[in-house]
Design brief:
This protein has about 210 residues and is α+β, with helices and mostly antiparallel strands. It folds into two domains: about 1-40; about 45-200, Umud Fragment, subunit A, CATH 2.10.109.10. The protein has helices at about 1-40, 165, and strands at about 40-45, 60-65, 80-85, 85-100, 105, 110-115, 115, 140-145, 150-155, 170, 175-185. Strand 6 and strand 7 form a beta hairpin. The chain is globular and about 70 Å long. The chain starts with a helix and ends in a 22-residue tail after the last strand.
């Protein structure tokens, strides 16, 4: 009876070891798949600032797809994620305004592209004051020509965005991908935890 009990106990331990090995293997495979997807297809990002208001709010969590720009160039008006030119360890998100060869100029907060005012229904201006060009490039800038394999980008919240007006162009090689959809939005300023989730923003496609 004792021998039988020991045998059953050994089989039980052996079964547990097999399950643990299978679990570790499945976890490893899932990790590899997740890393492949993150590297080549889709990556999640969180919006930390208000530079892209009203299109994106601080606390929005979005998916960025990395496939489109393997087959074509970013287009004017698209929202892209890229490595920040002054610190490649940081990722920024802005809207493409100028393409290679475009002449970009800003006069009195209005963007002129190749000599014509650019229609921008996605932007807001929160500061009625106009800053002279001698003090800041925010409201008066250029004209500048966008170099080859580069893009001029700006935030939609024009009076509160640190973008190409201040630090220059985004090289094509530093573009990570195209902003796709909001999968979660958290408002940490809400008075109640029940109000933290902005349900109306979940599933919003980014334009």
């Amino acid at each position: 009876m004792q021998s039988s009990s020991i045998t059953k106990e050994g089989k039980a331990k052996g079964g547990i070891k097999v399950k643990v090995r299978e679990w570790i293997k499945d976890l490893f495979i899932a990790f590899i798949v997740a890393m492949v997807v993150r590297t080549f297809f889709i990556q999640a990002f969180r919006i930390p600032s208000e530079s892209m208001v009203p299109t994106l709010l601080a606390g929005d969590h979005l998916l960025v797809e990395k496939i489109t720009y393997r087959f074509r160039e970013p287009r004017r008006g698209e929202v892209i994620v890229f490595k920040f030119p002054l610190d490649k360890d940081k990722d920024y998100i802005k809207r493409v305004i100028g393409l290679p060869g475009d002449i970009v100029e800003i006069r009195n907060k209005v963007v002129y592209l190749n000599g014509k005012p650019l229609k921008e229904p996605y932007t807001i201006h929160i500061d009625p004051n106009v800053i002279p060009k001698e003090l800041s490039p925010r409201d008066f800038f250029g004209p500048v020509k966008v170099p080859e394999n580069s893009f001029f980008v700006m935030g939609d919240n024009r009076d509160n965005s640190f973008d190409s007006r201040f630090w220059g162009f985004v090289p094509k090689k530093d573009v990570i991908g195209k902003a796709l959809i909001i999968y979660l939005s958290i408002d940490t300023k809400a008075k109640s935890p029940l109000g933290w989730v902005r349900w109306n923003r979940i599933g919003k496609v980014i334009h």
